[in-house]
Every structure is written in C-alpha cells, then in structure tokens.
Amino acid sequence: MKQTAQAIISDNILQLLDFSNFFDFAKSLEEILTTPVDLIQVQRLIISGSKIDSFAFLNLFPSLQQLSFLACESDKWSDLKGNGNIISLRLHNLKQKKKYLSSIGFVLTFPNLEYLYINMLGLNNFSELRGLKNLHTIFAQCRNGNDIKAQFDFSALEYIPKLKVLSVWMAVDRHRIPAESLIPVLSNPSVSHVDVTQMHTTEEKKLKKLMEKINPKLLETPLSDDDLQIINKQHFAW
C-alpha cells in the first residue's frame, strides 16, 4: 500500500514526513495543499525519504526559515533555489542517480544561511561553502562514502568570514579525522569553538596541542555537549 505524507501541524510548524514511497511526493504535496494550514506562515519544513522531480513547491513557503532534506533523491538538485528568509539547512545523505550527492553548490542560493547541518556521505570537502558570508555554525559528519579512503578537506573553512562553531564526527569508528586537517579551521580568526568526535584519542590530543599553538582562545570557552544540543534543537528542523 502506498503511503503519503503525514502533516504535523503545531505552533505554526508544518513537517512533511513519511514519504516512504519515493514516487508519492507530488501526490503527497497535493494532499498537503488541501489541509487548512496557511502555507504562507510555515517556518519549518522537513522532507524525508522522497524522490523530488521539481523544487518549485518551495515557492509555496515564502516565510520558511528552517529546511531539512533527509534521505531524498533527485536528478534536479542543481535546480534547488533557496531564499533570503532561510537561515537553517539540514542535509542528510542525499542522492542523485542512486549515488550519494557529491556537490551541494545549491547552498549558495541561500544567501543568509547561518546554520548548516551536513550528514552527507558523498562529500570530500567544503569548498562550496566559501561564498556563504553569514554562515556561523556547522554540524557535520565527514566521510566520503563514494571514496572511503580519501581524507576530508576542511581547508575552505579558513575563509568563511563569520564561522564560529564547527562540530564534526565520524560515522564509522575505523575512519579518522587527522588533527592536522583542521589547521585551516583553527586559523580562522572568527572561530570560537571546534570539536571532533571520533574513536581515535591520539587525534584528540594532537588537536588540543594545535589549538594551544594556533588559537588558544578555543580552549578557554568551549561549548558543552548540552550547549551544542540546544543549538541543534532550536535552530534546525527536526
């Protein structure tokens, strides 16, 4: 039996969930349009497990501030256009032609993006983020599922002018993030917090030494796990 989207409406929040059949997105959207919710006022939107043939539907949500795409598939990602109201974007394991998406250039169409949550298995660098002048917080899972031997490249983060928080983790324990690969981030004068969650304690010790050498202020007022969790809950559509 085909499943269509479930509309959860609370405090002016509409979440589109349960698109378990990739081919039901257009039909599900039509059904959402028949609900009494005022789409013009919707500020948070989640799209999960969907095959998306067109992103024109985003024009229905001019007040949207927080947008999440979770395990979605599309051949039209390059057509995705954001708007100036969206300040938070959450991207989780997106695919194109059955492969993990290796480019997120569409983020540059979100000129006022401040918060970015990336759990993407197709990326190997953050070069496409350099044009985001207002981005200040990044949560990221950093492993290239298309080439698991390649090290993730953080060098572009040195040049994001307002970046303050970087919190990264590894999805697979046997992979590691070398502390040296984070030197560009530590060298960004606007950064005030960097943390890495992985099984390799040696890298954690090396990272602390690099902080002491390059940017000691990072050791003075680090955000706690609770602080990071609050940011996650408040500023991303879950």
From TrEMBL:
Transmembrane segments: 100-118
SUPFAM superfamilies: RNI-like
Keyword Transmembrane: yes
Key words of the record: Membrane, Transmembrane, Transmembrane helix
InterPro entries on file: LRR_dom_sf (IPR032675)
Protein name (record): Leucine-rich repeat domain-containing protein
Organism: Panacibacter microcysteis
